[in-house]
Write a structure and sequence with these properties.
Order of helices and strands: HHEHEHHEHHHEHEEEH
Number of helices: 10
CATH architecture: Alpha-Beta Barrel
Structural class: alpha/beta
CATH superfamily: Metal-dependent hydrolases
Mean pLDDT: 95
Shape: globular
Distance between the termini: 30 Å
Radius of gyration: 20 Å
CATH topology: TIM Barrel
Length: about 220
């Protein structure tokens, strides 16, 4: 469609506009040609991979390992709730790794540690905040989560990254700190009223349902 409208592919169009660079985040990237990959790499742009959204929409899959091999920074995203109901980063870790292996026919592609880096260090780099976020280091923000991996399903833990990526579901998160502030304490969100949130979600659901009926009538 882009070629029909403008005569060039989307990446080439962005390049012509001067919009490709180290501050550019290219999201999804499921229809990349070899020249697109070279162009993204040349300009140092970042790619944000949203695997579960792409699966739900049937929109293709980003060639993550190929991009990584070319030196392109690939981070992980979830997309929005309309195309990814869970918005669960641990699910994205697992999906990204498993799809990467299947896509490239290589069990070593997008391994567990790579998936973790995509969700942490690579994400910070894509935001231009690698000096502030992405790893546990002195001087960086205390953005941390603590998971309960005491269950039998997580044993044996020969490789912590493998356990995190392939055995967790997200329910294991017991604590979450953002800039040192606890937002989840013992598995309970500290900044939201569950009852109020459920009621608001119900009201919005009714309004959206009514609006949908007007479109169908």
């Amino acid at each position: 469609a882009s070629v029909e409208r403008s005569g060039v592919r989307p990446i080439d169009f962005l390049e012509q506009l001067g919009l490709l660079g180290p501050r550019t985040q290219c999201v999804h990237m499921t229809a990349l040609g070899e020249q697109d990959i070279e162009t993204v790499a040349t300009h140092g742009a970042h790619v944000v991979h949203c695997p579960r959204s792409n699966l739900k929409l049937g929109s293709g899959i980003c060639p993550v390992q190929k991009l990584l091999d070319r030196g392109i920074n690939v981070a992980l995203g979830t997309d929005g709730a309309a195309s990814n109901n869970r918005l669960n980063m641990l699910s994205e870790l697992q999906t990204a790794s498993l799809i990467g292996k299947s896509q490239h026919g290589d069990p070593k592609a997008v391994d567990a540690w790579t998936a973790l880096e995509m969700a942490t260090l690579h994400g910070a780099a894509a935001l231009g905040l690698l000096d502030q976020l992405g790893s546990v280091e002195v001087g960086k923000a205390a953005d941390l989560i603590a998971l309960d991996l005491s269950g039998l399903q997580y044993l044996p833990r020969h490789d912590l990254a493998s356990s995190l990526v392939y055995a967790t579901s997200g329910n294991e998160v017991q604590w979450s700190w953002v800039a040192g502030k606890p937002l989840v304490r013992a598995g309970v969100l500290q900044t939201l009223d569950y009852t109020d949130l459920a009621a608001r979600a119900g009201r919005w659901s009714e309004q959206l349902g009514a609006f949908r009926q007007t479109l169908e009538s």
